[in-house]
Design a protein that fits this description.
It contains 3 helices and 3 strands, in the order αααβββ. It is α+β, with helices and mostly antiparallel strands. It has one domain. The chain has a 3-stranded antiparallel beta sheet, with no helix packed on it. The longest helix has 11 residues. The two termini are about 15 Å apart. About 5% of the residues are buried.
Length: about 80
């Protein structure tokens, strides 16, 4: 996903915020699962990427910014 977001920003002219929304809640709406996933809200499935540093560093190709991945409320990868 970081590469897809970088492509959206640098290739298609989206802002980082637009790419983030497109990769999260808008993607959930497109898949008709926005009531369960796509944003961090009470009652929704907890899927998240924990980033060390500014969130915009996620789209820096080759940057080691991802510190953990959370799936269904559990840490599945910590780096």
């Amino acid at each position: 996903m970081p590469f897809a977001m970088a492509l959206a920003c640098f290739g298609m002219g989206l802002t980082f915020e637009e790419a983030m929304v497109g990769a999260t809640i808008n993607a959930a709406y497109a898949l008709d699962c926005h009531d369960r996933v796509g944003s961090l809200e009470v009652g929704k499935q907890m899927d998240a990427v924990v980033v060390a540093g500014p969130a915009i560093d996620v789209i820096r190709v080759g940057a080691q910014t991802i510190r953990a991945v959370v799936k269904k409320g559990r840490i599945v990868h910590a780096g």
